[in-house]
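Ligand-bound model needed. calcium ion.
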Amino acid sequence: MSLDPRYLATGVDAALEAGRIHRRYFRQHPDIHKKGRIDLVTNADLEAERMFRDLIAQRFPDHVVVGEEAGAVAPPEGRCRWIIDPVDGTTNFAHGLALFCVSIALEVDGQLALGVVYDPINEELFTAERGEGARLNGEPIHVSMCAELVDGLLVTGFPYTIREERRRQVDVFAAFLHEAQAVRRLGSAALDLCYVAAGRLDGYWEERVFPWDIAAGALLVAEAGGTVTGLDNQPFDPFGLQILATNGPLHEPMLEVIRRVHQESA
Ligand code: IPD
Ligand code: CA
Ligand code: CA
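Prediction:
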């Protein structure tokens, strides 16, 4: 059954409005507060999430919203659950580095149905609906054809808890430095995934990521012809705190590297 067209329209309206909020504060001395030792929040994060919650309450009062800033607790299951990261790449945003976006996903009956990611500085709007392909500013996009890990440009990220995490995450990073063409750490999980969907990057992995970081981008990669699973090759779960998203041909080679490092560190 095809998705109510008002959902995509709402995701896009909200993403563009969030982008206006981002632009109003970007490089304009936003208020910056620390949620943790290295975990920041700005007035752009708070205002964009508030705007989104108000919009959904007004248009779809029975829909549930899970957002990064207003509490991570998932409310009781609703048929429609929106997942928003009002600014993905907050550290970049706070430093005036133009690599951030808003990320919005919609789950219907527990299945990812819609993903919208908007980078307001480069004016790139990524959209995907389940079964309908992935688009960048309205044009279809596709993952890369890269077939060898040694030719692959990979990307990853690290959680704010990296100081307390097992050394294993750094070991996986080091292993890919030796196996791939190069590895990037851009600071926005949602853009990492959109760039895999658009064929600019060939594979992305991350541990301890949250549904608002990855839900929209995961659907974009899948709809752009890529492969998305957990790091253990289990079916992808947006709430499962881990992800491997690739162009497809690099999936098994990347799983192999991860498996090897995990075995060595067990
Ligand atoms: C972070 C970014 C980063 C990823 C972190 C996320 P935030 O989100 O997506 O790339 O490595 O795991 O927490 O805090 O900028 O919304
Ligand atoms: Ca995020
Ligand atoms: Ca965020």
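The mean pLDDT is 94.
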